[in-house]
Amino acid sequence: MRNPLSMRLIAVGAFAAMAAAATPAYAAAPAGDVVVNGSLDNGVKGWWASKNTPINVTGGRLCAQVPAGGENVWAAMIGQSGVAVQAGRTYQLSFEATATKTTRIRSVVQGSGETHAAIVDGYPEVGGSPKKFTYAATAKVSDSEAQVLFQVGGADAPYTLCLDNVSLVPVHQSVVNGSLDNGVKGWWASKNTPIEATGGRLCAHVPAGGDNVWAAMIGQSGIAVEAGKTYRLSFKASATRTVKIRSVVQGSGETHAAIVDGYPEVGTGSRTYAYQNTAKTSDREAQVLFQVGGADAPYTLCLDDILLTD
């Protein structure tokens, strides 16, 4: 992939401050935010775009005129460079977006090395109604020159994409070894559901049968949650056939009450799923579980980037 910095960029953000002008009041950025001017209160300062993708601020949003064509998603981009991330910290990328036609884009925090490895990666489908998108992952290496990018090349027709409230903040991650960089350390599974680390993912061989979803499980125990805090469970998943599973953060009490609960339909292509809820009680022995019992035929489920953030 070509280095986005080598592309000809539109010069943006140049402005002259008049001595007599009053200082505007800008919205406060989220705590620890490493994105500059993510609220767009200061025009397009800090942001750049490919030459073929002019940008301006309209109604307090960064709006890009996305062209048709391009051989790949990075043929047209909006971005910010010089973003610092630290190895081992979990970062959450969030933004609001609309588009004049329904389209899928790539939102990515990308390293500055030769491979431009993705640190946080997502492929949201953006439409006419404003929607907030959130993706999170743990940085594997430190990088003081990472980039936040919105890659929009390859469109079948021109359209306008508008962005607002772009932030990249470090968040607390409760899951151990959610990136699976350390094999399956910290994870367990039912005896009938063997697991292994394959290609940097946790893959489980799910059996057929079982009277209920908890007849076969993959999980992690000893998760601490606090009453009143909102928790977000996110993960990437794929399966050798389309299946519906249960992903749940579950309390340790007799009722095993669900704290965060979701029933994603997982297919053959890797996709990010996310669910959130507020904990009603504190619990130092909660569990993150993927319940897969009751399958009508065996299959393989693979998981990666498992995060429980608050």
Automatic annotation (TrEMBL):
Pfam families xref list: CBM_4_9
InterPro entries with a match to the protein in the record: CenC_carb-bd (IPR003305), Galactose-bd-like_sf (IPR008979)
Keywords, in A-Z order: Hydrolase, Signal
A molecular function GO annotation: hydrolase activity, acting on glycosyl bonds
Domain CBM-cenC: 33-153, 174-293
Domain of life, source organism: Bacteria
Annotated signal peptide: 1-27
Name of the protein in its database record: CBM-cenC domain-containing protein
Species whose genome carries this gene: Microbispora catharanthi
